[in-house]
Write a structure and sequence with these properties.
Helices cover about 75% and strands about 0% of the residues. By secondary structure, the protein is an all-alpha fold. The protein folds into two domains: about 5-85, Rna Polymerase Sigma Factor, Chain: A; about 105-180, Winged helix-like DNA-binding domain superfamily/Winged helix DNA-binding domain (Arc Repressor Mutant, subunit A, Orthogonal Bundle). The radius of gyration is 19 Å and the shape is elongated.
Length: about 180
């Protein structure tokens, strides 16, 4: 991120902030969508984080740390949206009825749906760590800084989240009659 652009935005330069927001929007929307699993909630969280960044930017002490600070505000906005919208939403995707699915694509769709079901089972904290680490490509240290947690906690959450994902995918892959056997 351009530190000079951040400094100009801190001083109230609307054009500089507009450029910053333009650089952040697509990435933030991708991160929030992966955390919240709902595009409408993700758009709201992204918008709220951008407003909060504008409002709090003058108080940012170190422009060099803008990205970690901005990601932290995004995750907090995601958390607020998830709390505000505690509702059941089916994870259905409509596909065009006129287009036959290729056999190879069907396996990929099944795999993606299986992973999606497993990912939805993760807690908000576990989803946040997985998304920041594997989608946003932040280092474990950056994830910890973003979430304002110790590096060990970030590593632990990532470990348990990936373990839960593996277990859920394996459980879904077993035939139904085997799932009910203790």
């Amino acid at each position: 991120m351009d530190t000079e652009l951040v400094r100009r935005a801190q001083q109230g330069d609307r054009e500089a902030y507009t450029r910053l927001a333009g650089m952040l929007t697509a990435r933030f929307l991708g991160i929030s969508h992966r955390i919240l699993r709902d595009i409408d909630l993700a758009e709201d969280a992204t918008q709220q984080s951008l407003v909060t960044i504008w409002q709090r930017l003058p108080q940012l002490r170190d422009p060099e740390r803008f990205e970690a600070w901005a990601h932290r505000l995004l995750v907090r906005a995601c958390y607020a949206e998830s709390q505000r919208a505690r509702r059941w939403a089916p994870g259905l995707t409509l596909t065009p009825a006129n287009e036959p699915a290729a056999i190879d694509e069907l396996g990929a769709v099944n795999d993606r749906d299986e992973l999606e079901r497993a990912f939805r089972r993760l807690s908000f904290n576990h989803r946040s760590v997985v998304v920041l680490r594997h989608y946003a490509h932040l280092s474990l240290e950056e994830v910890a800084t973003t979430l304002d947690i110790p590096v060990g906690t970030a590593a632990s959450r990532l470990h348990y989240a990936l373990r839960e994902l593996r277990s859920a995918v394996q459980a879904d892959a077993r035939p139904a009659h085997q799932r009910s056997i203790p």
